[in-house]
């Protein structure tokens, strides 16, 4: 029979309520749902707070790659601007979707907006454009190309006006995401075009976020508090690591498996998702980073047989858009967070249950 020493028993009694209370905020498990258009492969890009996911997928028969939105259990083909390719990159809480598509001209790429049922090309001051993000005010960010050496420049589009955000001194830049405050993140070349750094654009100024010691960094997403995530080269010039930029400091988030890692999304709770690889470059997996701890998403699934190879975006509820494989399927997935639920007074009752259980264990020793 197991025996709990008196001192240990008293400590367990003292900490029973603390332990139970902490378990109510434990990391959730996830139920995996495939999203896509029936083709052999696809991926996701963004998710809104209602759980609507956007991305791209091969169509049935693998004839073309189209942008899609998955909402309410149904996946909708968003079509193209006349070409054979489109990809959705962002969605806001109003359900407006942005991305890029080839036009009927074949090689021409244009940013688009889907507001309702139709896909409309966004105006561009250059010869081509992409759209990467949209906030709840309808402000859109992305990149456009000029005819001068196909220079790429970050932009914000709102109320019919395209505003170039400039660069950090180099010849090119691109924007990845915008929050509801109007802050924009992306990357830009420095003077001389020998380095590319992540930037935060705020109040008309583009701020260089630096690197983790290498000569390159790229910002992927930000939340309403202005926390930024992305990836950066380390001082060895070869290793890529996920980062969190907060309060003026860029922090290396490490790697689950010892290889490269990238951070793709962050929500307003500070939860971060991304990809972590192995040194052999052959395998990797999606991760969730929360409260300073990185979790392998494949250890948090309640859906058997799935393998999540990347996590691309996370909403404020904790639902995740990513990609994964199950048997013959490899493509976009929605990971629905299953949060622990406590009834009113449940923490106290459960705490008393722990005490009673420990008491029975002790009395039987």
TrEMBL record:
Residues annotated as signal peptide: 1-26
Source species, domain of life: Bacteria
Keywords, sorted A to Z: Signal
InterPro entries from the UniProt entry: HAF_rpt
Name by which UniProt lists this protein: DUF3466 family protein
Organism of origin: Inhella crocodyli
Lineage of origin: Bacteria, Pseudomonadati, Pseudomonadota, Betaproteobacteria, Burkholderiales
């Amino acid at each position: 029979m197991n025996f709990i020493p008196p001192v240990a028993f008293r400590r367990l009694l003292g900490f029973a309520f603390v332990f139970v209370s902490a378990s109510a905020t434990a990391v959730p498990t996830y139920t995996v749902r495939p999203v896509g258009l029936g083709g052999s492969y696809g991926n996701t890009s963004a998710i809104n707070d209602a759980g609507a996911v956007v991305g791209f997928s091969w169509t049935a028969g693998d004839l073309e790659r189209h942008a899609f939105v998955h909402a309410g259990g149904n996946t909708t083909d968003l079509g193209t601007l006349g070409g054979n390719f489109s990809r959705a990159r962002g969605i806001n809480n109003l359900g407006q979707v942005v991305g890029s598509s080839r036009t009927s001209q074949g090689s021409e790429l244009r940013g688009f907006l889907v507001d309702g049922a139709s896909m409309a090309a966004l105006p561009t001051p250059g010869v081509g454009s992409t759209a990467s993000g949209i906030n709840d005010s309808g402000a859109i960010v992305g990149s456009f190309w000029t005819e001068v050496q196909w220079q790429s420049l970050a932009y914000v589009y709102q109320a019919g006006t395209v505003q170039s955000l400039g660069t950090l001194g180099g010849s090119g830049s691109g924007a990845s995401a915008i929050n509801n405050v109007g802050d924009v993140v992306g990357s830009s070349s420095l003077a001389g075009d020998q380095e590319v750094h992540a930037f935060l654009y705020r109040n008309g100024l583009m701020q260089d976020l630096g690197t983790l010691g290498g000569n390159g960094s790229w910002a992927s997403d930000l939340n309403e508090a202005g926390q930024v995530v992305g990836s950066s080269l380390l001082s060895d010039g070869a290793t890529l690591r996920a980062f969190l930029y907060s309060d003026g400091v860029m922090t290396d988030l490490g790697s689950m498996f010892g290889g490269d890692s990238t951070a793709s999304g962050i929500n307003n709770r500070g939860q971060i998702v991304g990809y972590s690889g192995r040194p052999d470059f052959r395998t990797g997996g999606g991760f969730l980073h929360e409260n300073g701890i990185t979790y392998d998403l494949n250890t948090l699934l309640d859906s058997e047989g799935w393998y999540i190879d990347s996590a691309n975006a996370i909403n404020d509820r904790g639902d995740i858009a990513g990609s994964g494989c199950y048997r013959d399927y490899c493509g976009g997935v929605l990971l629905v967070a299953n949060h622990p639920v406590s009834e009113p007074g449940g923490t106290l009752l459960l705490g008393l249950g722990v005490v009673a259980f420990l008491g029975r264990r002790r009395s039987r020793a």
